[in-house]
Design brief:
Two copies of one chain form a homodimer. Chain A is mainly α. Chain A has a domain of 73 residues: Orthogonal Bundle (Multidrug-efflux Transporter Regulator, Chain: A, Domain 2), CATH 1.10.1660.10. In chain A, 63% of the residues lie in helices and 3% in strands. The first copy, chain A, binds a DNA duplex through helix 2.
DNA sequence: ATGGAGCTTCCCATCATTGGAAGGTCAAGG
DNA sequence: CCTTGACCTTCCAATGATGGGAAGCTCCAT
């Protein structure tokens, strides 16, 4: 099948399929006489794998490693799990950061009247005219 | 003061100060005869404002708006609060996305033995050989 | 006057993805 | 047979926020 159909079947855009090939995440696709790329079921399978990994927030580098582990029949599930746990830790760190931002901002917003007057603890906090809320 | 000192005082790197000037987030700094940028207390104050807004996760576009509101003595706190609430919603959306990733991956990792054998529900889920965990 | 610290501009890299231009290929229909 | 339109090709550029570094200028202390 050609790239459009492979994109449809895998959920990865044609644009990204070419990109993944360019950066060596996937092997170069076969070519027809027309120079069009040609994909088989295995290729689509690998692309869908990548798609699901992206949906879980794995980086390209991590996906490279996941693909290597997937292909290695002698892999240990320990290695896969370690990679997953490392990624979970990254996710939790990001969630914590965003959660702190949310909490700080929610507190400020809660203290803001939200009326037609200019006085606003949000702006004042950003301006540093009041000590920033420091809850943890 | 010159840019290094302003960077130190505001918590914004000299690199970023120049960048913010280039994209019009801050007005062009005055220059000395040496062509060095020259900053006063007001400039540092504005940079610190930007720094705190960045720390709360506001985008450059949002900060542009916040700076406009800060400068506007006739602003309504309603407008500031609306911007803050909108940003809180963005943060919560991101947190929710990351949280779903974390939950899915944690479930898979929990089901993975993590031993020396290759069998691994994480890899299998990515490969699509088992239906993906669909909890919401 | 020389060294070094700090400044200047300019270009490039990151990360994953998207957009578009210019042009080649193929099938269907007039 | 020729056109049209959908598909493909490569290449270049942009996104957002930041960092790295080169080449060259300014300033101050030794």
């Amino acid at each position: 099948m050609q790239i459009g159909e492979a994109a449809e079947a895998s959920g990865v855009t044609a644009k990204m399929i070419r990109h993944y090939e360019a950066i060596g995440l996937i092997p170069p696709a076969g070519r027809r006489s027309s120079n069009y790329r040609d994909y088989g079921a295995d290729d689509v399978h690998r692309l869908a794998f990548i798609r699901r990994a992206r949906d879980l927030g794995f980086s390209i580098g991590e996906i490279r490693e996941l693909l290597r582990l997937w292909a290695d029949r002698r892999r240990s599930s320990r290695d896969v799990k370690a990679l997953a746990l490392r990624h979970i830790a990254e996710l939790e760190a990001k969630i914590a950061t965003l959660g702190e931002m949310r909490a700080t901002l929610a507190h400020l917003a809660h203290c803001c009247d939200g009326d037609s007057r200019p006085d606003c603890p949000i702006i004042e906090s950003l301006a540093g005219t009041v000590p920033p809320p420091h809850r943890h």
